[in-house]
Specification:
The complex is a heterodimer of chains A (about 260) and B (about 550). Chain A is an all-alpha fold and about 260 residues long. Chain A contains 10 helices and no strands. Chain A has helices spanning about 5-20, 20-25, 55-90, 95-110, 110-125, 125-155, 155-165, 170-205, 215-225, 235-264. In chain A, helix 1 (about 5-20) packs across helix 10 (about 235-265), helix 6 (about 125-155) runs antiparallel to helix 8 (about 170-205) and helix 8 runs parallel beside helix 9 (about 215-225). Chain B is globular. In chain B, about 50% of the residues are buried. Classes of the chains: A mainly alpha (about 260), B alpha+beta (about 550).
């Protein structure tokens, strides 16, 4: 089995599980049950229960929904902001390029997680703000990659030829440059999903991401870390989920990368 | 030096002294008998303890570094220290007039060797010990207290803890900036401090154990300016080594010229860690000698560390949710506040989250406050009562009530109780959103009065019901952060302070507590119990009921 398939299989399974969350687990992920606190895995609760008696499987599956939605959403948002900026900067060059890229540098100057924490402290915690923060700190990377690719294309003969036959800037951007940059951007975005999921988990782990009692892998891990000696099962589910998801997206990204290189 | 012996001797001396100033109280046969029996038991204890103490003290070693887990303090300058973290450090750096016995919390002399009031109880005289030194080598005199108290009260200082000085004559004028000196405080001689109060206050010496009353050396405050807050010069058993490294650590070194009992460890290294969990993991890894046990891991820790885990000793502390009474939704609706109070399953919180190391709290003053007893009114779980009150409040089944946002500081164990609370309220139809804030941001929002409902933990600053009722609910108290203001409660609290007899005073405090609970400005749910653990190499460790570890008493064995 080649890489692309492995990645695709992992991600498809994940998405299927997420969609079928309600069907796979009969429990409400936020409903507490005082009678079954910290129960180890059993037939009734395949992944056990947490300290407030909530079913871990249910929390994991609904948590996946949150994590994936935030990650995919944030990446799309990054591309929507980053791609046009990158294309414009790369094509026009000069002062436009400088202004846009220095702006991107400002955002890149912050370590991703630290910057995210700082902004979250100001705008407040919550899933929606996680999404905003990830987009704010993620777009410059996309813009840079796009710009580099565009710069590379612009110097090629066919662009000069198009200019000679009277192709407008808009036409060149839309018909030639944009399609040619999509490959690298797609590769980066796929790999980005993995790191975005990690960052979301970090923020939720610190308690400033997705707010309790709504499940998120990060906050589930935060709860599990302290109880690892008493209830080790708390860490298996969310831990494995984060690892597998990141792995899935990275493998897929890499496969795409290889595939595109062959083509180019 | 048999440490315990000298300590108990001290207590005997004060015992006599306390009787002196309480002599105007009626002495019953019963109390005489009790005093006699107490003395008898105490003498027996003294004899047996000194035997033990001899044994353990002979092993007590000088040296070593104590690594202490601490959250980032708000301040370590005594004028500004206000929360457990800041007070822990300040209490090592400074010694006030009095201190509390770590076991019994009885008042014991510190810089003051004795004190006395006039018969009315509104003028107090303190005789200071000679030879008490500041860390810069200069002797502490009464004038240093006068300077320190003026400094705390001054408007331009802007101390949030200044309200502790409110009973002192002239406080209002200094606080408003009209004067620079408290007329009520004077130093008739080098070693005598005289304090005149606005009203008779029989327990005045009790509140003086708060670090806000510590002496500070004027020359160091002037010379260091703003930096004094980072590198204070005190007179306590330990002096600061370098400066406070924010979010990293504070190092103290043994003060060799300390007047009190021998302090054993050479250095105390306060490692500042922002998360209970992280700190506890570091403790388990051997990097720390002391750590609080995070909620949910108490039983496992007891299993692992045996007697080194100190669990379930009653503390003078309360955990509660507070309504911000400045917000119209809560201010106008006492029935809503009562309904919420009746909806909370306190037992679930104490059992599930705190593994019974804490006590269920339906009232305000913890039962561990000496001689206080139970409040007349306590809130317990009753869904039917909660639903009825909610209906009377105008929100039958929660209809028409906006979502309530409960804010808590993250990483400090508030997550579990908050989620149970949320579920409890959902059960009667009230929707609650939870929001976690990083501790610094939380404190800022708290002082700004922005949050409509928040989680809070309150540790008494001194062993008295006053430390809960007056500090949290007196309308002019600096720690009354919920905007509670009730004339009757104010009157009762001042009357209680002025009451001379202990029984009468207790009755007045109980009356005030009852009145406050009727107004339901907070949702109390747990009284703190200890849940801390210390390393095997540490000896003489003691956690007081005031949530504090007196570090002059610990020593470190080589093994």
């Amino acid at each position: 089995m080649n890489k692309a398939r492995v990645g695709l299989v992992i991600i498809s399974i994940l998405i299927l599980l997420t969609l079928a969350a309600g069907f796979l687990s009969p429990y409400d992920p936020i409903r507490q049950d005082r009678e079954s606190v910290l129960k180890s895995p059993s037939l009734r609760h395949p992944l056990g229960t947490d300290s407030l008696g909530r079913d871990m499987l249910a929390r994991l599956l609904y948590g996946a929904r949150t994590s994936l939605t935030i990650a995919l959403g944030a990446v799309i948002f990054m591309v929507v902001i980053g791609l046009p900026i990158g294309v414009i900067a790369g094509y026009f060059g000069g002062i436009v390029d400088s202004v846009l890229m220095r702006t991107a540098d400002v955002f890149l100057a912050f370590p991703f997680v630290l910057g995210a924490i700082a902004v979250m402290t100001v705008i407040g915690p919550g899933a929606r703000n996680v999404f905003v923060v990830l987009a704010i700190f993620g777009w410059p990377q996309i813009a840079r990659i796009t710009r580099a690719q565009v710069k590379n294309e612009v110097s090629k003969d066919y662009i000069a030829a198009t200019k000679v036959v009277g192709g407008s800037a808009w036409y060149i951007l839309w018909r030639h440059l944009l399609p040619n940059t999509l490959g690298p951007v797609a590769v980066y975005s796929l790999m980005g999903v993995g790191s975005v999921i990690l960052t979301e988990a970090t923020l939720s782990f610190l308690g400033i991401g997705v707010q309790l009692p709504y499940p998120a892998w990060g906050s589930m891990l935060a709860d599990a870390v302290g109880r690892v000696t008493v209830a080790p099962w708390l860490i298996y589910g969310p831990g494995a989920a984060v690892v597998l998801t990141c792995l899935g997206f990275n493998i897929l990204g890499e496969a795409l990368h290889e595939a595109l290189e062959i083509k180019i | 030096m048999p440490y315990f012996t000298s300590n108990i001797m001290l207590r005997f001396i004060i015992g006599g002294h306390i009787k002196e100033y309480k002599s105007n109280r009626a002495v019953s046969l019963n109390s005489l008998l009790r005093t006699f029996l107490f003395s008898l038991v105490a003498i027996l204890l003294l004899v047996s303890l000194s035997a033990c103490a001899e044994k353990s003290a002979s092993k007590a070693k000088q040296g070593g570094t104590f690594n202490y887990f601490l959250g980032e303090p708000v301040a370590i300058d005594p004028a500004f220290a206000q929360e457990s973290e800041g007070l822990q450090v300040t209490k090592e750096l400074f010694d006030g007039l009095v201190d509390y016995d770590p076991e019994t919390l009885e008042l014991e002399p510190a810089v003051a060797r004795k004190w006395e009031s006039n018969s009315k109880g509104d003028t107090w005289t303190f005789w200071l010990r000679r030879g008490v030194k500041f860390h810069n080598g200069r002797e502490v005199t009464a004038a240093d207290f006068v300077y320190a108290w003026d400094r705390v009260a001054a408007k331009k200082t802007g101390s949030e803890a200044a309200y502790h000085l409110a009973p002192i004559k002239g406080f209002d004028k200094v606080q408003k900036g009209q004067r620079s000196h408290l007329v009520g405080v004077s130093a008739p001689s080098k070693y005598v401090l005289k304090v005149k109060l606005n009203y008779p206050f029989a327990d005045f010496p009790t509140i003086l154990g708060h670090p806000v009353f510590s002496p500070v050396p004027k020359e160091a405050v002037k010379a260091r300016g703003r930096e004094f807050a980072e590198r204070p010069v005190g007179n306590g058993p330990f002096a600061i080594d370098g400066a406070w490294e924010h979010r990293k650590g504070i190092t103290l070194k043994r003060f060799k010229k300390y007047y009190g009992a021998k302090n054993y460890v050479d250095a105390v290294n306060f490692k500042i860690i922002d998360n209970d969990q992280t700190g506890f993991l570091e403790f388990q890894g051997g990097g720390l000698d002391y750590s609080p046990i995070p909620s949910g891991q108490i039983k496992a820790t007891v299993k692992q560390f045996g007697p080194n885990a100190i669990v379930g000793e009653p503390q003078l502390g309360l955990q509660f949710y507070a309504f911000n009474l400045r917000k119209p939704l809560f201010r106008k609706n006492v029935k809503l506040r009562q309904a919420i109070n009746n909806a909370v399953d306190r037992t679930a919180i104490v059992e599930n989250v705190y593994e019974n190391a804490y006590l269920v709290a339906g009232g305000i003053v913890p039962p561990a406050v000496e001689g206080y007893g139970k409040p007349a009114r306590e809130y317990t779980l009753s869904s039917s009562r909660a639903k009825r009150l909610l209906k009377e409040a105008g929100y039958p089944g929660g209809r028409g009530l906006p979502t309530i946002k409960l804010i808590y500081p993250t990483g400090r164990g508030y997550e579990g109780p908050a989620q149970i609370f949320q579920q409890n309220l959902k059960d009667i139809g009230i929707k609650v959103d939870l929001e976690g804030l990083e501790f610094g941001a939380f404190l800022k929002a708290l002082r700004a009065g922005k949050m409509s409902m928040f989680a809070a933990g309150w540790q008494a600053d001194y062993p008295s019901p006053d430390a809960f009722l007056y500090q949290l609910f007196y309308s002019k108290s600096g720690d009354n952060l919920i905007g509670f203001s009730d004339k009757e409660v104010d009157r009762l609290l001042i009357k209680a302070r002025s009451a001379v007899g202990a029984v009468q005073r207790r009755r007045l405090y109980q009356k005030a507590e009852n009145q406050i609970l009727k107004e339901a400005p907070i949702v109390p749910y747990a009284y703190y119990g200890t849940s801390v653990v210390y390393a095997k190499r540490v000896k003489g460790f003691r956690r007081t009921a005031l949530d504090n570890t007196p570090l002059d008493r610990v020593w470190i064995s080589k093994d």
